[in-house]
Write a structure and sequence with these properties.
The chain has one domain: Rossmann fold (3-Layer(aba) Sandwich), CATH 3.40.50. It is built from 8 helices and 5 strands.
């Protein structure tokens, strides 16, 4: 008889999809390969998405489909400043904080056993905004009593992890995410199967 497996979903933006990286070298595909005996690991992420957009699709995408673990990764698009929006952030500080808390609350209400929030890596633009939004992610994890995967803290000072756009992860950056997250997956598996 096969061992029981968990279903783990990364719900985020182009970072979880591995934009600019070969599909077999993204951190999600590396995790899925390493833990295939114990977990089905997927990305349900949308390139360019903000937390405001994610909240709209969240119930449809995750409610009642048997997800055991969900990891939310947002912030880089939320704090991005577009010229077409007169330099304003796509999602304000207050809205981002509230959106992260609401996503975690909804995931729990939908019966997902383990919910985690993930901060973002250092980037080459909007640096102070990214650091501030990472702080909101940490606060939301603490407020909701859920796991934090603090990529931003662990990769602080990291070099050579970005593609030429200064935001997305290259192969080495995806490998760093894989190394960080793979240390947490056994904990997810244990807690979901006991």
């Amino acid at each position: 008889m096969a061992e029981p497996k968990i279903t783990m979903v990364f719900f985020g933006d182009s970072i979880c999809n591995g934009q600019g990286c070969p599909s077999n070298k993204t951190f999600v595909s590396l995790l899925a390969e390493k833990f295939e005996e114990y977990a089905d690991i997927y990305s349900m992420s949308v390139n360019g998405e903000t937390t405001r957009q994610a909240l709209l699709r969240l119930p449809y995408n995750i409610n009642g489909i048997g997800i055991d673990v969900i990891v939310f990764q947002y912030g880089l698009n939320d704090c991005n400043r577009w010229d077409t929006e007169s330099g304003c952030k796509r999602v304000s500080d207050e809205s981002f904080w509230a959106n992260m808390k609401e996503m975690a609350d909804k995931a729990r209400a939908f019966g997902i056993k383990q919910v985690a929030l993930m901060t973002n890596h250092p980037v080459d633009k909007n640096t102070q905004d990214v650091l501030r939004y990472n702080g909101y992610i940490r606060q939301a994890a603490e407020h909701n009593g859920i796991m934090l995967i603090d990529i931003g803290d662990i990769m602080h000072g990291s070099k050579n992890h970005l593609t030429s756009d200064g935001v997305h992860l290259n192969i080495d950056g995806n490998k760093q995410y894989y190394d960080i997250i793979s240390r947490r997956i056994p904990e997810f598996i244990r807690e979901c199967l006991t």
